[in-house]
């Protein structure tokens, strides 16, 4: 994502930027978008630094995003993930995200995507 896009999201009242860091070093981030006219939040981006993978940071960011979505009154969280990203799909499935739609050729390189959805508890 470009610096310009990040600046726009950081200023937006409809975006939540969650970070995982230690000692001032950024290890991961998650961008959650919440539209005004929707009760569904969207995980737009989740990134964990290669050196920090396998430590549960992605999982912690997803849980925090779900809590942020609930606090905003959302009833569900959706996201798109590469169909061939088995690690990410496993993380989301572990947390109750289920396939909603196949997105053929969704990514720039032609890879397929999946739209996942998780209803949140009332």
Feature tags:
122 residues; GNAT_dom; alpha+beta; six-stranded mixed beta sheet; Aminopeptidase; globular; GNAT family N-acetyltransferase; Bact_Acetyltransf; 3 helices; 27% helix
Largest sheet: 6 strands, mixed
CATH topology: Aminopeptidase
CATH architecture: 3-Layer(aba) Sandwich
What is the ordering of alpha helices and beta strands?
A: HEEEHEHEE
Kindly state the percentage of residues in helix: 25-40%
CATH level-4 homologous superfamily: Gcn5-related N-acetyltransferase (GNAT)
Number of strands: 6
Mean pLDDT across residues: 94
Give the strand order of the largest sheet, numbering strands 1, 2, ... along the chain. 1-2-3-4-6-5
Oligomeric state:
single chain
Please tell me what the overall shape is. globular
Concise description?
This protein has 122 residues and is α+β, with helices and mostly antiparallel strands.
Polypeptide structure, described:
This is GNAT family N-acetyltransferase. InterPro entries: Acyl_CoA_acyltransferase (IPR016181), Bact_Acetyltransf (IPR050832), GNAT_dom (IPR000182). Residues 1-121 form the N-acetyltransferase domain. It comes from Stagnimonas aquatica. GO terms for molecular function: acyltransferase activity, transferring groups other than amino-acyl groups. The structure is a single chain. With 122 residues, the chain is an alpha+beta fold. It has a single domain, classed as Gcn5-related N-acetyltransferase (GNAT) (Aminopeptidase). Helices cover 27% and strands 39% of the residues. The chain has a six-stranded mixed beta sheet, with helices on both faces. Strand 2 and strand 3 form a beta hairpin. It is globular. The N and C termini lie far apart (33 Å). 22% of the residues are buried. The mean pLDDT is 94.
């Amino acid at each position: 994502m470009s610096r310009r896009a990040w600046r726009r999201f950081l200023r937006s009242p409809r975006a939540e930027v969650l970070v995982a860091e230690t000692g001032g070093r950024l290890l991961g981030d998650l961008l959650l978008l919440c539209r005004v006219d929707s009760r569904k939040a969207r995980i737009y981006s989740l990134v964990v630094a290669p050196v920090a993978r396998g430590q549960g940071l992605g999982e912690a960011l997803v849980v925090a995003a779900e809590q942020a979505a609930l606090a905003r009154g959302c009833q569900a969280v959706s996201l798109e993930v590469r169909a061939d990203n088995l690690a990410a799909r496993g993380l989301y499935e572990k947390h109750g995200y289920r396939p909603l739609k196949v997105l053929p050729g969704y990514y720039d390189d032609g890879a397929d995507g999946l739209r996942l959805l998780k209803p949140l508890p009332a």
